[in-house]
Amino acid sequence: MGTGDLGTGNLVIAAAFAAQAIGYPPFDVSGIHVSKPTEICEIDLTALGGELRRLSWSPDSQSIHVQTVESRITPHDYIVSIDDREMSLAFGEPQWAMTYWAQKSDLSAPGVPSLKMEIAESNRRTRPAPFSGGFANGGAQTPDVKNPVDAYEAEVTLRLLGVEIGNWINGAPMAGETFGWGPVGSAALVFVDRPGRLIFMDQDKRRHVVGGVKGAWMPAWSSDGTRVAFLQKTARKKYRLMSADVTLGR
């Protein structure tokens, strides 16, 4: 594994996607069980180059595609094997990874197009800072002469059924960065809130918070619903790639 070549595995992958495309009934996440997350491997961006951009499951849930982008232009692709916990270079993004990412990051739930996220955008003026002789001591509001111009900030918020799924202030929103849809037809997703907790939610707004997880990022729910992966930052350029098994209640 690690070449990104569909070659002899093409028919197997196609069959797996075809089976998953049939879809699942809607999930009830109130009875979901998520095992304790374990580390698959470390991701060192100093060695890989660029910034993290994509995290995608293979259709058999045995591999994860990791993509970084250098200078916002040049992509680097890697494949992580779940069994041996090894990362290897892929020569281009595999087709299955493209298919997964398109589904994971869509604003509409796969197989349930009526379940769609709402985007709210706002721009507001912020006070220049620091201030001297401000309102607190009865003086006039005087901006620092080195920062005489008011600042503006732009905010983008994603919501599903009124629940915040992602929020960016003066940043570049990236679809799939804070959430990942569940299997086709499940009408469920996994997302991270502002503190980085890992949360599952279904179409009835039932939620399941995974205990003991903080600082999670870029959650990815496998296409067969059996696993969830996410990243945890450990240093300026280092992350842990984590994985946990997912079992639905009956």
Secondary structure blueprint with pairings:
Layout lengths: L9 H12 L11 E2 L3 E7 H4 L2 E7 L5 E8 L3 E8 L5 E4 L4 H10 L3 E2 L2 E5 L1 E9 L4 E2 L9 E2 L7 E10 L2 E7 L9 E3 L6 E5 L5 E5 L4 E3 L6 E6 L5 E9 L2 E10 L3
Antiparallel strand pairs: 1-20, 2-20, 3-4, 4-5, 5-6, 7-8, 9-12, 10-11, 12-13, 14-15, 15-16, 16-17, 18-19, 19-20
Q: What labels would you give this structure?
A:
250 residues, mainly beta, 5-stranded antiparallel β-sheet, 4-stranded antiparallel β-sheet, 3 helices, 10% helix, 46% strand, globular, disordered N terminus
Structure in words:
This protein has one domain (21-126, 154-247). Helix content is 10%, strand content 46%. It has helices at 10-21, 45-48, 95-104, and strands at 33-34, 38-44, 51-57, 63-70, 74-81, 87-90, 108-109, 112-116, 118-126, 131-132, 142-143, 151-160, 163-169, 179-181, 188-192, 198-202, 207-209, 216-221, 227-235, 238-247. Strands 1, 2, 18, 19 and 20 form a five-stranded antiparallel β-sheet that branches. The chain has a four-stranded antiparallel β-sheet with strand order 3-4-5-6, covered by helices on one side. Strands 14-15-16-17 form a four-stranded antiparallel β-sheet, with no helix packed on it. The radius of gyration is 21 Å and the shape is globular.
